[in-house]
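User: Modeling request: complex.
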Amino acid sequence: MGSEVSTGNGRKARGRDDRRQAILDGAFALFARRGYAQTCVQEVAQEAGVAKPTVYNHLHDKESLYREAVESAADRVGARCVAIVEQLREVATDGDPRAGLGVPIRRLSRAYHDEEAFAVRQLAIAEAGRFPDLAASVRERTTLRIRSALADRLARLALAGRLRPCDPELAAEHLLALLTGPLEYRPDADPATIADAAVEVFLRAYGSDHA
Amino acid sequence: MGSEVSTGNGRKARGRDDRRQAILDGAFALFARRGYAQTCVQEVAQEAGVAKPTVYNHLHDKESLYREAVESAADRVGARCVAIVEQLREVATDGDPRAGLGVPIRRLSRAYHDEEAFAVRQLAIAEAGRFPDLAASVRERTTLRIRSALADRLARLALAGRLRPCDPELAAEHLLALLTGPLEYRPDADPATIADAAVEVFLRAYGSDHA
DNA sequence: ATTAGACTGAACCCATGGGTTCAGAAGTGT
DNA sequence: ACACTTCTGAACCCATGGGTTCAGTCTAAT
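Assistant: Request completed. Predicted assembly structure:
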């Protein structure tokens, strides 16, 4: 991660952006573990291996530290999930749609419910009262982005006759709901079995009749 | 709400439990609006029309104030939703299951997504890191309780031949997911159309074939 | 009338933590 | 050698707010 550019500080010779990202990552980890109010900037600095004034040198105050940390993590989660959804392209256009959907959806379920994704949603909701735009921004970068990519794939499946004609956005919403709902803050459940049941139900509702 | 028992204080002659409940209700309203850390006990006292030491007279500290306020509201939400689900008894055993499910599920959707229900979930998730048992308790009092009642009704429908044979718990989970997912922090959407689409998809997946 | 219990209001103590300041150190470019 | 930049670490200021104390008040019960 550290581009080997020397920067003039007495430490690890990371680029400024790397240093900034290290601060954001440490902040996200701490916020996720302790919450906004219970995390002090001092700890963030320590976690990132940096002095407190350095944090304020990169981020204006605690609030923007929170915003940028959460948004940065949301981008990671969104990108990961979208990449998985887009793999649905090659695999699902031939053979049984159940088998075609099953594997990527399982992977999506895991990615959508891993530690980081859960923390992102939690942090966005937790401070939705004070930072409503942050909640909207996170939703944009994760849920909506993923849903949009999924709708795109589903529309293609519908065109190929694998799904009955439907509103792809709504169908994507329903499939994501079937994946998300049962896991609502229960990391002990197995994402794979959840995913399989979701695909089963989804295809019974949305699959074309010649199955 | 005020049982007319005089209590010895200079005020409204409410029973002790009423006073306690007033504190919890005011606390819940403020916590929902501002969040845990941003709400000070002084404000809670003011909102409840009470002095600060009185709050500490009824609740041991801010933490238990939060816990009891949220749990109390969760009980209200759970009871309201369960009552609606149980009305599904009389209406859905005759006629088209689509029509039979539609009305109560719409009402459930509204109840499940009203202001208080949303606030309860938000507050539980927001402090899940610090009060994990509170999150579990809220889940118990709302989601699990409602799901259980719904599974009971669905099992009955399956026995009556209105649904194909299925695991009622899983079916209830899926129906609730279809109701909840699309609304994930979007109060602007209409619960009724969400509910209709959910029932539509649910019945296509779970309805018996002679529809 | 007196006692007992709950409430008030205001002051108070004190820990926490956001944000700043500053002197000095370390490295870079010229 | 020089200035420039960035970071450090520690001290510092100060607002917030949890929790307590206490003297005084009101009402009900005896």
